[in-house]
Amino acid sequence: MIVITAPTSTIGRLLVGDLLARDAKLRLVTRDASRLAPDIRDRTEVVEGSHGDPVVVERAFEDADTVFWLAPADAAAPSAEAAFVDFTRPAANAFARHGVRRVVGVSAIGRGTPQARHAGPVTASLAMDDLIADSGVAYRALVCPSFMHNLLNHVGAVKAQGLFFMMADPDLKVPTVATRDIAAAASRLLLDGTWTGFDEVACLGPEDLSPNDMARIVSDVLGRPVGYRQVTAEAFKERMTGFGFSAAMAQAMADMFDAKNAGMDNAAPRTAASATPTTFRQWCEEVLAPAVARA
């Protein structure tokens, strides 16, 4: 039995589809079962509730061999540590009690870098990885840079203003990864019963691009000029709190971008194993362009 947390998330949806296509036996943990497609509900076991709830994980992990772990984005959390470490603690306590053998989780690049000590969600994600590994299960952390998918948050500005805005250095080339490739990496690990111990598996995309490089590609794909504009930390935090982020989480996000601008995402070398296949141009053609057309 494979337990999938956050099955309606961007990564979780893709992962569930891939595993069902391979006839895997799945148990899904979701806050709202009505968000699952009827055919998914018919082919899986469903445990309704938050996977941060001790009562829910006790039910979810019974007779489970393997777990996919994804801490949900919690913009209103009192801290990044609360959003990742505290949320994960009930599950980490339950893994050994239920004989879970392997866990695959989504995390972040940065371990071993000086920037990772003060990088908001990245710092908290790495602490979450340590918590899971210390529980005694075999653990693979899928460590990722920024997701291409994050650009969907800027679809309105791209369409209306021909711009997207971030704190990122406009000329710093860094890796980005498509969520489909993270899901594919998770699927491979969840179906492989041979690995042991704790390790990180980097998912880096096939190329390094700066925000200005991305703007040129978006312009080419959309057939009209699109530019990138860097914003200050204060403007970024104000925007985040306007979207419902707590002050602590807005600051944590700003800290993360400061760490990324200092080179944290370039810490993991791209190798044949860590280079995932989806290019940013392909993602723009298949995901961003239709989203802009619908906006």
Sum this structure up briefly.
The chain has 295 residues and is of the alpha/beta class. It has helices spanning 10-21, 38-43, 54-60, 80-97, 121-134, 155-161, 179-190, 211-222, 233-242, 247-261, 280-294, and strands at residues 2-5, 26-30, 45-48, 66-69, 102-108, 138-144, 146-147, 163-166, 174-177, 198-202, 208-209, 227-230.
Strand order of the largest sheet: 3-2-1-4-5-6-10
Helix content: 40-55%
Content of β-strand = 15-25%
Tell me the series of helices and strands, N- to C-terminal. EHEHEHEHEHEEHEEHEEHEHHH
Strand element count: 12
Q: Uncertain regions: pLDDT < 50 for 5+ in a row?
A: none
CATH topology of the domain at 2-147 and 178-203 and 262-275: Rossmann fold
Span of the ends, CA to CA:
40 Å
Q: Can you name the CATH architecture of the domain at 2-147 and 178-203 and 262-275?
A: 3-Layer(aba) Sandwich
Shape verdict: globular
Radius of gyration: 19 Å
Average pLDDT confidence is 95
Tell me the name of the CATH class of the domain at 2-147 and 178-203 and 262-275.
Answer: Alpha Beta
Q: Helices and strands: which structural class?
A: alpha/beta
Largest sheet: 7 strands, parallel
Number of helices: 11
CATH superfamily of the domain at 2-147 and 178-203 and 262-275: NAD(P)-binding Rossmann-like Domain
